[in-house]
Amino acid sequence: MMEKPGIVITGASGRMGQALAKLVVAQGRFQIVGAIEREGSAALGRDLGALCGLGELGVTVTDDPLPAFAKARALVDFTSPAASVAFAALAAQARLVHVVGTTGMEPEHHRKLDLAAHHAVVIQAGNMSLGVNLLTRLTQKIAEALDADWDIEIVEAHHRMKVDAPSGTALMLGEAAAKGRGIDHDKARVSGRDGITGAREKGTIGYSAIRGGDIVGEHDVIFAADGERIILRHIATDRALFARGALKAAAWGLDQKPGRYDMMDVLGL
């Protein structure tokens, strides 16, 4: 019987890392061959399975990715922008499928992912869920149909520990709206209004961020005109849905040529 392809999980002790580990074991599609954490993490030296309540898996959490990458076919990465681009360079050398769910990426990070994609499959998205990617496509189509008399506002809510705002998903939705309307997202973007801001400038895309409690993720795209509104909404109640999407992407990537992809490619949208 053919051996299962090896997979490495970075940020292994975090909420997404543990959700991924549990799902990999439950699905049986991959075999975990590495669990990576940052230098100084309290999880270093512990068994990943014991850390996740799965029992011993024989996979020790480490801060050295190279031995694990040598045994793997895929890497799933929900960490930080700086860590992700560092992993991307190593994953490209090992020719791994690199699934990047990290948010808060800036243009320089994307440029480094583009370089890595010359040698390996890089699948990066602000959100890995099927529902959010369908919402993204709907947002683009509605923006194509409505003119600038319809104001676009994106409201997102996440747990108190989230470090970036607006969320990667919110920006993905805003970029889809800008694409549908045929405008430059960066020029149209307005975030965090405060004080005497004056009237809303026509054609802009506004963002509002809510942080509190243990909210997994909620996103509203509001198209507002005089006398009517269209509201598109996605609510996530379990971060396992992001893990499912990431593993679907990793499996899909095994059959692809080196290049830069996103969840729209994975889902055939």
Task: Give a quick rundown of the structure.
With 269 residues, this protein is of the alpha/beta class. 38% of the residues lie in helices and 24% in strands. It folds into 2 domains: 6-124 and 239-267, 3-Layer(aba) Sandwich (Rossmann fold); 130-236, 2-Layer Sandwich (Dihydrodipicolinate Reductase, domain 2), CATH 3.30.360.
Structural class, from helix and strand content?
A: alpha/beta
CATH superfamily placement of the largest domain: NAD(P)-binding Rossmann-like Domain
The top-level CATH class of the largest domain is Alpha Beta
Strand content: 15-25%
Count of distinct structural domains: 2
Number of strands: 12
Numbering strands along the chain, what is their spatial order in the largest sheet? 3-2-1-4-5-6-12
What is the CATH-assigned architecture of the largest domain?
Answer: 3-Layer(aba) Sandwich
Fold-level CATH name of the largest domain: Rossmann fold
Helix content: 25-40%
Distance between the termini: 34 Å
Helices and strands, in order, run as EHEHEHEHEHEHEHHEEEEHEH
- Rg estimate, integer Å: 19 Å
| Multimer state | single chain
Poorly predicted regions are: none
Mean pLDDT metric:
94
Brief descriptors of the model:
about 270 residues, alpha/beta, Rossmann fold, Dihydrodipicolinate Reductase, domain 2, seven-stranded parallel beta sheet, five-stranded mixed beta sheet, 10 helices, 12 strands, about 40% helix, elongated, NADP, NAD(P)-bd_dom_sf, 4-hydroxy-tetrahydrodipicolinate reductase, diaminopimelate biosynthesis
